């Protein structure tokens, strides 16, 4: 069972008595880019950490999963990240023992920053009781297609509102989209440069011969309040969607449902485009 946490960009996955807290896109060290441009912003790590501690105290999970982009720099690691990320994770580990990270596109060279007990999964994701979790910048592992629901981050979804005077505001949102199982499977096969399973060797054909069960894609808002987001209701935004899954015709993005963090249903993306 998946339950978004009211007023937080986080959800809980519960199976029997085991509770897993899931968040995405911390981007610790984002201030470094501003400092390099002459805009001096103090580290916001402590505020982000405190929000996560409050969430852990409220939900009391057995496991914490971070869906990628723990750090902000992509390939390298800045000096501030060497300081902030180990301190952040060591403190969180005193609150919850089982911490797992699915690698995001910003998590290059993340391993030296992790305490030994933290498990780092590949970006292709993991499965938990018919739910697949991955970051979103790469294709999920084919085994995730056998889950009923896929959960990803990476997009930092927001909605944009504009009044008659041109005043604009944005706010983070959840996206819940329907998924065409066969189209997603065929797109994954095509990405592997196989048009049909007939072109595969017997061993590879067996590994790709799966019965997809995915019916729903859930996109998480960014956990870092200080970052902006991608207004998904902005006109002509479809071409700017990031991640291979969202670029396929397996996901009808315009018909996706949009929810605020407090659970308010706003409508579909196509309905909200008139407000941008």
Question: What does this protein structure show overall?
Answer:
The chain is an alpha/beta fold. It has one domain. Helix content is 21%, strand content 24%. The strands form two sheets. Strands 7, 8, 9, 10, 11, 12, 13, 14 and 15 form a nine-stranded mixed beta sheet that branches. Strands 1-2-3-4-5-6 form a six-stranded mixed beta sheet, with no helix packed on it. Helix 2 (45-59) runs parallel beside helix 3. The radius of gyration is 19 Å and the shape is globular. The mean pLDDT is 86.
In percent terms, what proportion of residues is strand? 15-25%
Q: What is the strand tally?
A: 15
Distance from first to last alpha carbon = 33 Å
Helical residue percent band: 10-25%
Q: Give me the secondary-structure category.
A: alpha/beta
Count of domain modules = 1
Descriptive tags:
9-stranded mixed beta sheet, single chain, 276 residues, globular, alpha/beta, 24% strand, 6 helices
Provide the fold topology.
Elements: E1 2-4, E2 11-15, E3 18-23, H1 31-36, H2 45-59, E4 63-66, H3 79-93, E5 98-102, E6 119-121, E7 126-128, E8 131-133, E9 149-152, E10 157-162, E11 168-178, H4 181-191, H5 202-208, E12 216-219, E13 230-231, E14 257-260, E15 265-268, H6 269-272
Give a short overview.
By secondary structure, the protein is of the alpha/beta class. The chain contains 6 helices and 15 strands. The two termini are 33 Å apart.
């Amino acid at each position: 069972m998946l339950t978004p946490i009211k007023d937080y960009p986080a959800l809980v996955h519960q199976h029997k008595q085991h509770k897993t807290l899931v968040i995405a896109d911390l981007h610790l060290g984002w201030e470094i880019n501003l400092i390099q441009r002459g805009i001096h912003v103090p580290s916001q790590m402590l505020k982000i950490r405190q929000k996560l501690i409050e969430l852990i105290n409220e939900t009391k999970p057995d496991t914490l999963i971070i869906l990628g982009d723990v750090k902000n720099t992509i390939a390298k690691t800045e000096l501030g990240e060497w300081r902030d990320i180990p301190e952040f994770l060591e403190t969180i580990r005193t609150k919850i023992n089982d911490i797992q990270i699915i690698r995001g596109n910003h998590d290059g060279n993340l391993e030296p920053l992790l305490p030994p007990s933290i498990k780092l999964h590949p970006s292709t994701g993991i499965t938990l009781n018919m739910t697949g979790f991955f970051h979103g910048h790469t294709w999920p592992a084919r085994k995730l297609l056998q889950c009923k629901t896929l959960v990803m981050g990476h997009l930092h979804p927001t909605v944009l509102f504009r009044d008659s005077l041109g005043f604009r505001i944005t706010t983070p949102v959840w996206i819940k989209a329907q998924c065409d199982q066969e189209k997603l499977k065929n797109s994954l096969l095509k990405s592997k440069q196989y048009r049909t399973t007939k072109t595969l060797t017997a061993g590879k054909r067996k590994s790709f011969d799966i019965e997809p069960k995915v019916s729903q894609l859930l996109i998480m808002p960014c956990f870092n309040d200080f970052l902006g987001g991608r207004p998904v209701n902005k006109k002509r935004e479809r071409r700017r969607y990031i991640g291979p899954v969202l670029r396929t015709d397996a996901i009808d993005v315009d018909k996706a449902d949009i929810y605020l963090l407090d659970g308010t249903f706003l409508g579909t993306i196509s309905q909200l485009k008139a407000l941008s």
